[in-house]
């Protein structure tokens, strides 16, 4: 086939009842192409297309489908079809699906599995949520150090078809304890009679089944692996975790952090699948907190009400002042949270981070201070010479130094608050940009009017 069938073409074949022709067309396409095609169809057409796929291809497609489409299929396919698909699915993908289904439904589905697959699924579901054990698959190749290269290759030919990946083979002892991992290329390039023990260096990277999934992401990134072995506390090899599962977790973690940075609790489901009421509950809490925070801004302005009455011109620059500090804080927060997520520094580096933000804050504050002061100078000298009155130079100095102080404070607050939350065992993404902006709004007003009092005392104040 030279081109993919379009959704319109598929729909046309369904309407014409050309199911045999459609079945022949579909089996020539890759799973990812079929996923895109199915998700573009209406629900009725989705089921028809899926039922026409061979079991192996249907299983591969099912593993890549959106969760909502998977649920739709499970609710409408025959019990026999569901059983066949679940038994064919890789254990890790099957476990990931079952985690999102109601408990009663999960119990029914588990009963449809074959005895070996049911045992594996129950073992995986027995691990704590968000643990590495939930991600691992028991489909891997384990070998012995006493074997020869030829024996290993023969073993792969007999049993490799069920393995999740053949890029790395795992050497275990008689008790199943992991003692090494060896890339497949070593066997392909070695003499057939060479023993496995001569290929071993006994250096390997492993994960613990009870380890947090987020920690596993860092291990994969640092070691550039497509799969890693998973062991228990005694070092016994239980399974492997592959990079595709880690990428899914990474996407979930990034999505959660981005949603929190926007000032909302993380959504449990995709945006369009989340009910309006659930969406309101996720967002209302933070909005109330931020509103209460902004009330402190009103209190701060009330405290400086006399100064505002004496020098009403100061009120013109309040939006400029507080937005500059909030923007600087939001920038710093985003940079620090992302850097911590990537493991670029640890909490013990807080002083180094603070020094960098002090220097950056001073530089950025100076730039914005000059721009803000020059705006006043330009207005007073060119646009409307009498607008700011005889003390326009002092007003320019006030705005310039206020911007310097507020941007510096915003940068420090935005950088240190996520680290403080991390130290307290909380999610640093909770230090969302709106929260930092609200904090800087309140303190920014205090900085602004404090500078104004020092500079304008005896003149406008």
From TrEMBL:
Assembly with partners or alone: Homodimer.
CDD domains xrefs: CBS_pair_Mg_transporter
Name of the protein in question: Magnesium transporter MgtE
Localization terms from the record: Cell membrane; Membrane
Domain CBS: 200-256
Major localization listed first in the record, in broad terms: membrane
Keyword Cell membrane appears in the UniProt entry: yes
The organism of origin for this protein: Hymenobacter yonginensis
Protein task: Acts as a magnesium transporter.
Keyword annotations of the record: CBS domain, Cell membrane, Magnesium, Membrane, Metal-binding, Transmembrane, Transmembrane helix, Transport
Pfam families, sorted: CBS, MgtE, MgtE_N
Membrane topology: Multi-pass membrane protein
Record PANTHER family: MAGNESIUM TRANSPORTER MGTE
């Amino acid at each position: 086939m030279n081109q993919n069938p379009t959704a319109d073409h598929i729909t046309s074949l369904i309407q014409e009842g050309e199911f045999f022709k459609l079945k022949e067309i579909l089996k020539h396409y890759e799973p990812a192409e079929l996923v895109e095609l199915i998700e573009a169809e209406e629900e009725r057409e989705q089921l028809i297309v899926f039922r026409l796929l061979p079991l192996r291809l249907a299983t591969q497609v099912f593993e890549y489908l959106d969760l909502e489409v998977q649920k739709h299929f499970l609710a409408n396919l025959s019990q026999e079809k569901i059983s066949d698909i679940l038994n064919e699915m890789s254990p890790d993908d099957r476990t990931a699906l079952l985690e999102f289904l109601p408990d009663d439904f999960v119990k029914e589905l588990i009963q449809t599995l074959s005895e070996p697959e049911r045992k594996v699924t129950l073992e995986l579901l027995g691990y704590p949520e968000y643990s590495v054990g939930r991600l691992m698959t028991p489909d891997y190749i384990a070998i012995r150090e006493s074997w020869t290269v030829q024996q290993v290759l023969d073993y792969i030919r007999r049993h490799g078809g069920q393995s999740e990946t053949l890029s790395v083979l795992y050497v275990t002892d008689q008790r199943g304890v992991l003692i090494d991992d060896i890339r497949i290329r070593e066997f392909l390039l070695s003499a057939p009679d060479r023993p496995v023990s001569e290929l071993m260096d006994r250096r390997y990277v492993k994960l613990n089944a009870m380890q947090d999934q987020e920690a596993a992401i860092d291990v994969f990134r640092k070691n550039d692996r497509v799969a890693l072995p998973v062991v228990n506390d005694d070092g016994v090899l239980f399974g492997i975790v592959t990079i595709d599962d880690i990428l899914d977790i990474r996407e979930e973690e990034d999505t959660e952090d981005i949603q929190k940075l926007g000032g909302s609790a993380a959504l449990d489901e995709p945006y369009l699948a989340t009910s309006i009421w659930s969406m309101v509950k996720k967002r209302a809490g933070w909005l109330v907190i931020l509103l209460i925070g902004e009330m402190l801004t009103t209190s701060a302005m009330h405290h400086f009400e006399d100064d505002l009455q004496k020098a009403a011109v100061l009120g013109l620059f309040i939006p400029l002042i507080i937005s500059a500090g909030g923007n600087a804080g939001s920038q710093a927060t985003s940079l620090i949270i992302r850097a911590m997520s990537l493991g670029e520094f640890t909490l013990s580096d807080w002083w180094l981070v603070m020094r960098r933000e002090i220097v950056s804050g001073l530089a950025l504050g100076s730039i914005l201070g000059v721009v803000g002061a020059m705006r006043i100078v330009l207005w007073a000298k060119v646009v409307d010479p009498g607008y700011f009155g005889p003390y326009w130079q002092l007003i320019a100095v006030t705005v310039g130094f206020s911007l310097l102080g507020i941007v510096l404070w915003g940068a420090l607050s935005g950088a240190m608050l996520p680290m403080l939350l991390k130290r307290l065992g909380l999610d640093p993404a909770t230090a969302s940009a709106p929260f930092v902006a609200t904090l800087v709004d309140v303190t920014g007003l205090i900085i602004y009017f404090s500078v104004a009092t020092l500079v304008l005392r005896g003149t406008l104040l």
